[in-house]
Amino acid sequence: MAAAAVSPGLVQTAPALAGDASAALPARAAFAKMPYVYLDSGSTHPMPLGARTALEEYLRYKTRDGLWTGYSMDAKEKAVLAGFGALVGAAPDELTFIQSTTMGENLVLQALGFPEGGGRIVTDALHFFGAFYTYGELAKAGMDVVTLPMTAEGRIDMAAMAAAVNDKTRLVSISHVSTTNGFEHDLKAVCDLAHAHGAYVYADIVHGAGSTPLDLRAAGVDFAASSSYKWLMGDFGLGFLYVRKEVQEKLTRPWWGYHQVGGRFVTHVFPFDPPGQGVADYGYAPGTDGKFAMGTTSWTGVVQLEYGLGFIQQLGVPNIQAHRQPMADAIQTELRRRGYQPMTPLGSRTPLVAFALKDARAKLGDLLTRNDIRMTVSANRFRVSLSVFNDMNDVDKLLAVLPKAPPA
Predict the structure, then answer these.
(1) Bridge partners (DSSP) listed for residue 226
(2) Which of 331, 345, 349 lies closest to 208, judged by CA?
(3) Are the CB atoms for 123 and 138 separated by under 8 Å?
(4) d(Cα 342, Cα 364) in Å, to the nearest integer?
(5) Per-residue pLDDT tens over the stretch 114-151
């Protein structure tokens, strides 16, 4: 599977893990000692200590420290793109840097020419809730937007999706792993359905990349985007856009940035320039860059990700998934036994476990803070995020603190 490949440019920056990578889990020593039980990596993941060291080295380069010879940021950018591609099953020329997942989704919508031409978009209630605004505005602009509901088990029903996708459908837009409850779409099934009707598929992969086995090309996904501050262990301001090679030339360039230029760039306006028609002659960079790249990216983000991606690759995503599964199962089993209302389907293999509770923030927020537990508590639900440094001791503490029955 393509996602199992290792990017050679990243291996040297990752920590040396003795023996079987799975034996290194939980990877507590790779992170700072935290003053609380941290079960909120799905909101923002702690930075590994090795990434902090890499950033300190970068700052020596950036301050032009006389004792630091520097290094090639161009090589680091290429290594990060290749490393992310190996993680998610994408070729480097199918990827470009972006600022955020939301930016990537909006660039795709613009490249497809929405809302001009109308047509149907099929999405669902377990897509990122920030996209509710996006598709609400597209509906106001005249597009036929169908939002599939969540089932009582916390899933999106494929039969309902099959009924909604028709020959007027232009896009199916989903989250690979839902930020709400960790539900994981069968991406290949979604893509097969959409493609049979001539529609494209966009997947928000911010909760899948780095946490859950993923192969975009094998699944047939047309577009995907991810920020890096969650399971990639990066930071805000740097993410990735994936555009499947076969659809790149069918798209309208959504904006113009000089990083789209490639092959040649010859000016005709400065001293000693060759003559030419107009101010410059230029070509386009190949692949996704040629349609979507803009300008400079976050070098601190690149440096941090170069380490973080290598760390994830050495641990192995299947090992990460296997490590957390007993913890997720224990939370599901015990809180269901206590009568909490589950939102995450049984058997889920993703890092998120969620429960519904009316007035959850008011009932649990202070209790968890007083007991040094950090996790997502929303108005009417709470969500546990499990990562590589968590273990059953963390789960035991959480279960000891949560009320023995849902608070009234």
Answers:
(1) 240
(2) 349
(3) no
(4) 16
(5) 999 999 999 999 999 999 999 999 999 999 999 999 99
| C-alpha atoms less than 13 angstroms from C-alpha of 219 in its C-beta half-sphere | 26
Nearest CA-CA partner of 233 in 19, 21, 8, 54:
54
Going across the sheet that includes 169-175, the strands are 95-98, 239-243, 223-227, 200-204, 169-175, 120-124, 144-148
Tokens 């590994």, residue located = 48
| pLDDT, tens digit, 9 for 90 and up, residues 95-114 | 999 999 999 999 999 999 99
Q: 264: exposed, middle or buried (C-beta count within 10 Å: 0-12, 13-18, 19+)?
A: exposed
Q: Please indicate, yes or no, whether the overall pTM of this predicted structure exceeds 0.85.
A: yes
- C-alpha 325: how far from chain center: 20
User: Beta-strand (E) ranges in 194-329?
Assistant: 200-204, 223-227, 239-243, 261-267, 280-284
- Identify the residue whose tokens are 């920020």: 227
C-alpha to C-alpha distance for 346 and 348, rounded to whole angstroms: 6
> In terms of DSSP bridges, do strands 341-342 and 352-356 run parallel, antiparallel, or are they unpaired?
antiparallel
Contact predicate 241/291, CB 8 Å: no
> From CA 369, how far away is CA 38, in angstroms rounded?
11
Tens-place pLDDT, residues 16-72: 443 444 458 999 999 999 999 999 999 999 999 999 999 999 999 888 887 777 789
Length of the chain: 408
Token output for 17:
């893990």
Contact 229, 45 (CB under 8 A): yes
Contacts of 344 (CB under 8 A, 6+ apart): 154, 181, 182, 183, 332, 352, 353, 354, 355
Neighbours of 370 (CB within 10 A): 9
Query: Contact 64/259 with Cβ under 8 angstroms?
Result: no
Amino acid at 342: P
Q: Decide: 209 and 379 in contact? Cβ < 8 Å.
A: no
Q: Rounded mean pLDDT of 331-353?
A: 98
Q: What pLDDT is recorded for position 10? A: 54
Q: 400 pLDDT exceeds 70?
A: yes
Q: What is the C-alpha separation between 139 and 132, in angstroms, rounded?
A: 10
Burial zone of 277 (CB within 10 Å; 0-12 exposed, 13-18 middle, 19+ buried): exposed
How far apart (Å, rounded) are the C-alpha atoms in residues 44 and 222?
Answer: 27
Q: Which residue segments constitute the domains of the chain, with CATH numbers given?
A: 73-309 (3.40.640.10)
